[in-house]
Design brief:
Oligomer: single chain
Strand order of the largest sheet: 7-6-5-4-3-2-1-8
Structural class: alpha/beta
Helix content: 40-55%
Order of helices and strands: HEHEHEHEHEHEHHEHEH
Number of domains: 1
Distance between the termini: 17 Å
Number of helices: 10
């Protein structure tokens, strides 16, 4: 397991360097259903950011993981305090209190209502938490995320919340019909215009708020099957699970 994860991370890192010559790309190890031991191996091989989809699953794993980061000086090449824990799945309002306690970053704020709930929970424990606005870039009915035209409105309200720090935008590309191995590249290319649209919004947002001295830092888009195209289109944060840890057991 350890050698496989190490090799996979080296392959991804090398690939990203070739694609993104002019910018650094943050790799989030998407660790849904993965064991704590697998996550530890990713951290020991240079991963500084770990993402979970479900608060309850994260709570069970992160207690042990945080102990490992605090106690094991070899973790993350001696830079264990740099590891950040991200919520990359939908946040239910009744899970907000626990999410604020566990995570360093919540990437899935998609309404003023959930932002306010997170802010209130963060204020209660005197914590400032980094957040990102999740955008439903393809307006899919079965997906979470705000409409692209709602981004500025949500952001303007977040700016008023003292315990939230807005650091970026996040999106998932649309899901197409399942396809065979030979068609995957073609399907991935179909995501390109959506990623480009998201990058345009990211740039538009930063231009709009430049006068106030505010600038979004991260554009989180791209997963195991699509991160190359996403980075080519401007992503500087990718969420990778299978290509780091291998295929999940069925």
């Amino acid at each position: 397991m350890a050698d496989t994860i190490k090799t996979n991370i080296e392959i991804i890192t090398t690939e990203l360097i070739k694609i993104s010559v002019s910018k650094e790309v943050v790799i989030i190890a998407a660790s849904k259903t993965r064991s704590v031991d697998e996550i530890k191996q990713a951290i020991l091989n240079g991963i500084n950011d770990v993402g979970e989809n479900y608060v309850q699953e994260a709570e069970a794993k992160f207690v042990e993981l945080k102990r490992f980061l605090a106690d094991d000086k070899s973790a993350n090449n001696g830079k264990n305090t740099n590891v950040k824990l991200h919520l990359i799945g939908h946040l239910q309002s009744n899970k907000a209190k626990k999410a604020v306690e566990i995570f360093d970053v919540i990437q899935t704020i998609d309404s003023v209502k959930i932002a306010q709930i997170v802010n209130d929970r963060a204020e209660a424990i005197s914590k400032v938490i980094e957040v990102m606005i999740e955008v439903n870039i393809a307006d899919e009915e079965n997906k979470h995320g705000c409409k692209i035209e709602e981004v500025e409105g949500i952001a303007s309200e977040i700016f008023k919340m003292k315990n939230l720090k807005l650091i970026g935008l996040m999106t998932m590309g649309p899901v197409f019909e399942e396809c065979g191995e030979n068609e995957k590249m073609e399907q991935t290319e179909k995501l390109r215009p959506y990623f480009r649209k998201m990058k345009n919004k990211f740039d538009e947002f930063n231009n709009k708020f430049a006068a106030s001295g505010f600038k979004l830092k991260y554009l989180s888009m791209g997963m195991s099957d699509s991160y190359q195209v996403a980075v080519e289109e401007g992503s500087n944060m990718v969420r990778i699970g299978t290509n780091i840890f291998g295929s999940r057991e069925k």
